[in-house]
Specification:
Helix content is 49%, strand content 14%. With 176 residues, the chain is of the alpha/beta class. It is built from seven helices and five strands, in the order E-H-E-H-H-E-H-E-H-H-E-H. The chain has a five-stranded parallel sheet, with helices on both faces. The chain is globular, with a radius of gyration of 15 Å.
Amino acid sequence: MDPKELGHEGNIVLIGMPGSGKSTIGIVLAKILNYDFIDVDLVIQQRCDKTLQRLIDGLGPAGFIQVENEVLKSLDFQHTVISTGGSAVYSHEAIGHLSQEGVIVYLQVDLPELEERLSDFTERGVVMRQEGAMSLEALYDERVPLYERFADVTVDINGLSITEAANAVRSALQLG
């Protein structure tokens, strides 16, 4: 596939659950493809000068999603692997923008593997739209249908190393 076929700007947009490896796989994928890399969570933290968890605590889930939406809509890159936050799919406007900028790749990881990877996901700055504590399973059940709906390509990365997962994405996109 010609990178231009990926979308208007030839970007690869990674979506998926917290702990799916979007940032780590994204960095390796960018190196393999000779692309730039951007982690949207870090952009949000830099623009707001606060950690994600402090932003969520201060703004609430809806306020954080609004900030994330504005940041995502402002992205304008070319030939870049973009690692989104797991909650990016809550903003249809932002996902619409990202789909015009490139191909959206859902890094699919089963719940049991996520449970192994995430001992305490409550400290990661995870947006939960329900009031009170939300289990990883409930978050998974809420988000997976959104990831599936917005993905142009789904890549099952269960049991893969970081490099194997990056190569699986590259193969799925028929690049290199």
